[in-house]
Amino acid sequence: MSPDVTPRGVWCATLTPLAASGVPDIARLFAHAKRMFAAGVDGIALFGTTGEGQSFSLEERRAALESLLAAGIEPARIIAATGCAALPDTIELTRHASRSGCAGVLIVPPFFFKGINDAGVFGTYARVIDAVADLRLRLYLYHIPQVSGVPIALDVIQRLVEAYPRTIAGVKDSDGNLAHTRALLARFPELAVFVGHEPHLPAALNAGGAGTICGVANLFPRLIRRLHDHASTERHHDDLARVERFIAAVGSYPLFAAFKAIQAHLSADAAWGALRLPLTALDHEERRRMLAAVGAAGIDFGRDAAGPYAGSPSSAMI
What is 9-230's CATH superfamily? Predict the structure, then answer.
C-alpha cells in the first residue's frame, strides 16, 4: 500500500461470481474486473457487502485476491474488504491484504453482537491496526449500520484519526444518509470519504468527497462514471434521475439477487445468477418482473452498461 496514492473516483463493489461447485469463479471475476476498468471504473472492492463477503471463508478470500494479482490486476486498483465476525480473522485478512500491496482495506465494525459501545468499536479497530503493525496499511472504516447494526460514531473516528493518523485513510459511508456524509466531510476533510448510495455521489463530490464504492457500477459503470465526472455541472441531472429510477425499480426485490440476475442477463451468462447460501436467486417470475421494471427505468444499455455484451433496452430486458 503506497502512502502517496489515495484511491478516488469510481470504485466497483464487485459481485462475486460462483463456479458450478459453488466456489468463487476467478476467471469470471477477473474478466468482470477488466471489463469494469475498460468502462471507466478506477478500482474494485472485493468481498464487501455486494460481493457477499461474509459468506466466504478466509481461504477463499485470500485465494481470490492472490489469483487476481497473479492474473495481472494491479494491487493499487484493489481495496479488500477484510472485516469478519471474529477479530483474529479480520487481522489475518487485513495482514494478507497489506502484504499484498492493496490500495486499502475496508473493515466493517464488529457486527454480530448488537449494542456495542464506542469503546468496543474503537478497541476493535485499534487491535487490528496494532496487530497488523504494517506502515503500509491504509484502512477505510465501513459505516453501514442498516446492515451491521453497529454505527461508527464521529467521535470514534476522531479518536482513531488522532491515534493512527497514517493508517486511517477514509470512510465508506453506506448509511444512505446525505446529512451524515456531509457531517463526515465537514469534520474530517483529511479523510477520503466514499459514498455507497449512488444518488448521493454528485452532492458528496461537491462537498469534498472522494467518490463512490458502489454496487451499481457492476451493471452500469459508464452511467456511474458520467455521474461522477459531470457532478459539478448541469449535465449530471439526467443521469442522476436514471440512477434513482433504477434503484426504485429493484428496491422491492432482494438486492444482490436482483443485481446478479441483471448481470446474468446483460452478459448472457446464467452462471452469474448464482448466490452463496443463505442468499437465494430470484425465481423465474420475480426475475421477469424485475427485468421488465429495470427496462422501463430508462437505462440506455448501449451507453450505460459495459463490455461487448451491452445491448439496447429492447434486446437486453425483454
Answer: Aldolase class I (3.20.20.70)
